[in-house]
Specification:
Elements: E1 18-23, E2 28-32, E3 36-40, E4 44-47, E5 54-56, H1 61-64, E6 75-82, E7 85-90, E8 95-98, E9 108-112, E10 115-118
Antiparallel strand pairs: 1-2, 2-3, 3-9, 4-5, 4-8, 6-7, 7-8, 9-10
């Protein structure tokens, strides 16, 4: 809905450690150290370093299960893929893609001490 400017600096997510994956009825929350969270209300993808991408949506709690194995890992870097889509690469080389997939509502929010980014 809101999109994400390609110029937005997301480097503050680098080196953040994933502490929790919280699964709700319509949300998945990635809680990192440094008082940083990413709340997903959109489609997402998970690609392990070994291969096949899995696609998920927060309303399917089973799809969020693939993210549980990432707890304890750190973010190596974040790529702004354009059109509001992000790719998070973790220290084990697994990737999480977050898609701006909701045309009429918010897709995800990034909250940190720097403020809130709503996409």
């Amino acid at each position: 809905m809101y999109g994400l400017n390609q110029q937005v600096d997301l480097s503050f997510l680098s080196d953040r450690k994933l502490l929790q994956v919280c699964v709700g009825e319509f949300q998945v929350i990635l809680r990192f150290d440094g008082d940083t969270t990413i709340t997903l209300e959109c489609a997402f993808g998970y690609t392990p370093k070994s291969g096949q991408k899995l696609l998920g949506v927060p309303s399917s709690q089973n799809s969020a299960a693939c993210l549980l194995g990432l707890v304890g890992l750190q973010v190596m870097h974040v790529n702004n893929l354009g059109n509001g889509n992000l790719e998070i690469v973790l220290t084990n080389r697994d990737r999480v893609e977050i898609y701006d997939s909701n045309a009429d509502t918010e897709s995800y929010q990034i909250s940190s001490p720097r403020g809130m980014i709503i996409v």
